């Protein structure tokens, strides 16, 4: 095994050149430029001078912006929790489905990715708006119900459409809709590796289905839950399109503020500082999580 | 009568930065062929969406042999961002008045050779010497616009001819749409409170912010210039919008109308400019002169239904355009409207932070 790996090293190196070049040219270098901007000032309408100032960060940690970051984290946490609650049963169902239907179910989970996020969000707007499909269907049901109650002399009042769009509900609903596949797939990957004999043993030894789920399945799925939570939580904190299109007057998230710095406000250094502040916080949270889980592992051992 | 175009100059999709590759007429002229002026028979136009007549570009090609390639932008910010690091090859761009100033201050425009634009005599006197470009040295007006209130007549009591109904009243709570653009919001708020839209003092900005924060629970949405679509779909009943945008949807739904509030408003003018480093400046001048021609102008305004700064083109327009109160609001209220000005980046940052505070509170 070792020998073949040594022989293949040249091939391996050759194969890794394109992705490494790609990573540097299109990810790390542009990111480094934005990072440098975060230590700069607007010298003129078109020029940014990088002078090592921390003023942009000082501005970014003012209560106004920290409050918006905090609120974004709140939206993202709620989204993640809902995704977990909805996604776990879905992942369990796929795991225990027959091999043939498993393939179909996985395809269904991935189907939304075949359509651009922007188009899906517009479709969601058509569903949720005042004169959208949900309110239209509810209106039909309401008038049918009203006909029935009218027979008993109590007709219902006019149907009031539900406010489903342009509010915080729509933002969380949209985020759950977008992020759900990212939660289901890692959960499924973890559950699929689960040793079925453990479940049989648990059931044989007298544990009920619920106890088996709570004490065997859930703990074994923890790695899947952690990666599912991370890949759902982090993109949700930085969500831009969803709050922008589905949100209302109270739905501003941090990515919307950052977007304005790069466009209408034209303050790239401040926008860069806000972006990187968010990134430092994410790194810190992941590092903390790693430390905590390692310590937890050691305690158990 | 010709129907209105779908969408608008700042249409919804375009507003999200989805830049559509525009009409390409490059097939019309053989590659690399040069005209009598020594320039290649090509022109790169960078324009707003739905902002030319149906045959404007083809007519220009027929008249001059110059093929036009049009690309589209959705906001002035996008236009500025595209050109700030150097001109990627555009010959004619169409910034709004404040951005004419900003482009000029950033030294990104080529001065116009007025001798090559004889059709400028067609312009209305008000557009011959505007405050944002004295003497018209850098820009020629393409359209003008005024911000006002679009509304659904059957859902609103009478004519809502004050900004109050949008900014400072709970009468239409839950059915109000305001702009999300920081400068428009703050400047119109100041106008409602009796100040000019220029040089707004800091205490007034603060007062405006407080007013919007108080009004926010009654506001349904802060929109990105798609107010006419929200009005048409029934999501809201009263909205801050440009007259041209509302004029377009008024032809689809007779229950909609537009008014410029009695406190006055902000004037805008989209202008044709030649960016610095334009590869074909003479073709660019030819195009600008072509657009300012009466008949060619009429062809454009017939389609886009924005108010024209061109007296000769206006004379050729039918009465449903000329006498349209949405396109040409009454003179007494227009007299209270003024151009906003580019007042430096510090100002832009202050406005943005104020709006961030309004949205966050």
Considering the chains and any ligands shown, give keywords for the structure:
heterodimer; A: 301 residues; mainly alpha; two-stranded antiparallel sheet; B: 361 residues; 7-stranded mixed β-sheet; 3-stranded parallel β-sheet
How much helix, percentage-wise, in residues of chain A? over 70%
What amount of the residues of chain A lies in strands?
Answer: under 5%
Structural class of chain A: mainly alpha
- The helix/strand series of chain A, from N terminus to C terminus, equals HHEEHHHHHHHHHHHH
- Cα(first) to Cα(last) distance of chain B is 48 Å
- Whole-angstrom Rg of chain A: 25 Å
Q: Could you give a short account of the major beta sheet of chain A?
A: 2 strands, antiparallel
- Gross morphology of chain B is globular
Global mean pLDDT of chain A: 90
Indicate the mean pLDDT of chain B. 90
Approximate strand percentage of chain B:
15-25%
Extended strand count of chain B: 10
- Helical content band of chain B: 25-40%
Q: Which structural category do the helix and sheet elements of chain B fall into?
A: alpha/beta
Tell me what the structure shows.
- The complex is a heterodimer of chains A (301) and B (361).
- Helix content of chain A is 75%, strand content 2%.
- Chain A is mainly alpha-helical and 301 residues long.
- In chain A, helix 4 packs antiparallel against helix 11.
- The model of chain A has no long low-confidence stretch (mean pLDDT 90).
- In chain B, the strands form 2 sheets. In chain B, strands 4, 5, 6, 7, 8, 9 and 10 form a 7-stranded mixed beta sheet that branches. A 3-stranded parallel beta sheet of chain B has the order 2-1-3.
- Chain B starts with 11 loop residues before the first helix and ends with a helix.
- The A-B interface holds A 42, 44-46, 64-65, 67-68, 71, 118, 129-131, 163, 165-166, 241, 244-245, 248-250, 252, 256-257, 260-267, 270 and B 16, 18, 75, 77-78, 80-81, 84-85, 102, 105-106, 108, 174, 181-183, 216-217, 219-222, 224, 233-235, 345, 348-349, 351-353, 355-357, 359-360.
């Amino acid at each position: 095994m070792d020998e073949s790996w040594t022989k293949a090293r040249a091939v391996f190196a050759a194969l890794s050149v394109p992705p490494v070049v790609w990573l540097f040219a299109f990810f790390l270098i542009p990111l480094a430029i934005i990072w440098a901007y975060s230590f700069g000032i607007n010298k003129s309408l078109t020029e940014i001078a990088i002078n090592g100032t921390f003023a942009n960060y000082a501005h970014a940690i003012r209560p106004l912006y920290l409050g918006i970051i905090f609120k974004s984290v709140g939206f993202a946490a709620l989204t993640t929790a809902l995704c977990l609650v909805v996604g776990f049963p879905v992942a369990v169902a796929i795991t225990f489905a027959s091999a043939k239907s498993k393939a179909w179910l996985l395809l269904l989970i991935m189907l939304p990715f075949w359509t651009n996020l922007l188009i899906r969000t517009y479709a969601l707007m058509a569903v949720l708006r005042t004169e959208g499909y949900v309110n239209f269907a509810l209106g039909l049901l309401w008038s049918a119900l009203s006909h029935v109650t009218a027979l008993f002399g109590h007709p219902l009042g006019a149907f009031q459409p539900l406010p489903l769009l342009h509010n915080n509900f729509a933002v969380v609903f949209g985020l759950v809709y977008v992020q759900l596949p990212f939660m289901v797939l890692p959960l499924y990957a973890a559950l699929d590796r689960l040793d079925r004999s453990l479940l049989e043993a648990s059931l044989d030894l007298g544990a009920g289905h619920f106890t088996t789920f709570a004490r065997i399945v859930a703990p074994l799925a923890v790695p899947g839950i952690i990666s599912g939570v991370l890949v759902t939580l982090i993109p949700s904190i930085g969500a831009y399109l969803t709050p922008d299109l589905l949100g209302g007057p109270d739905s501003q998230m941090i990515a919307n503020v950052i977007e304005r710095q790069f466009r209408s406000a034209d303050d790239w250094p401040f926008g860069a500082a806000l972006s990187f502040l968010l990134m430092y916080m994410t790194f810190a949270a992941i590092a903390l999580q790693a430390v905590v889980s390692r310590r937890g592992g050691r305690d158990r051992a | 009568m010709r129907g209105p175009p779908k969408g608008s100059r700042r249409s919804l999709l375009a507003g999200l930065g989805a830049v559509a590759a525009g009409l390409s007429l490059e097939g019309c002229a053989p590659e690399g062929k040069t005209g009598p002026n020594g320039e290649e028979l090509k022109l790169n136009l960078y324009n707003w969406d739905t902002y030319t007549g149906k045959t404007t570009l083809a007519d220009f090609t027929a008249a001059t042999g110059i093929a036009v390639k049009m690309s589209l932008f959705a906001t002035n910010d996008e236009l500025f961002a595209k050109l700030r690091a150097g001109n990627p090859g555009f010959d004619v761009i169409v910034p709004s008045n404040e951005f004419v100033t900003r482009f000029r201050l950033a030294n990104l425009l080529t001065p116009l050779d007025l001798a090559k634009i004889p059709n400028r005599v067609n312009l209305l006197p008000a557009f011959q010497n505007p405050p944002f470009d004295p003497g018209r040295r850098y820009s020629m007006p393409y359209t003008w616009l005024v911000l006002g209130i679009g509304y659904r007549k059957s859902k609103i009591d009478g004519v809502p001819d004050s900004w109050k109904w949008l900014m400072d009243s709970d009468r239409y709570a839950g059915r109000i749409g305001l702009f999300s653009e920081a400068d428009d919001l703050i400047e119109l708020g100041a106008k409602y409170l009796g100040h000019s839209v220029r040089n707004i003092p800091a205490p007034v900005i603060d007062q405006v912010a407080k007013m919007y924060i108080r009004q926010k629970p009654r506001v349904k949405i802060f929109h990105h210039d798609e107010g006419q679509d929200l009005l048409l779909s029934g999501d809201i009943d009263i909205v801050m919008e440009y007259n041209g945008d509302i004029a377009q949807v008024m032809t689809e739904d007779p229950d909609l109308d537009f008014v410029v509030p009695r406190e006055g408003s902000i004037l805008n003018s989209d202008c044709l400019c030649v960016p610095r480093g334009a590869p074909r400046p003479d073709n660019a001048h030819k195009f600008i002169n072509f657009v300012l021609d009466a008949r060619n102008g009429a062809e454009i305004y017939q389609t886009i239904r924005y108010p024209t700064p061109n007296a000769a083109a206006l004379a050729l327009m039918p009465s449903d355009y000329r006498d349209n109160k949405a396109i040409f609001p009454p003179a007494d209220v227009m007299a209270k409207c003024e151009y906003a000005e580019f007042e430096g980046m510090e100002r832009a940052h202050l406005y943005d932070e104020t709006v961030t505070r309004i949205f966050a509170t």
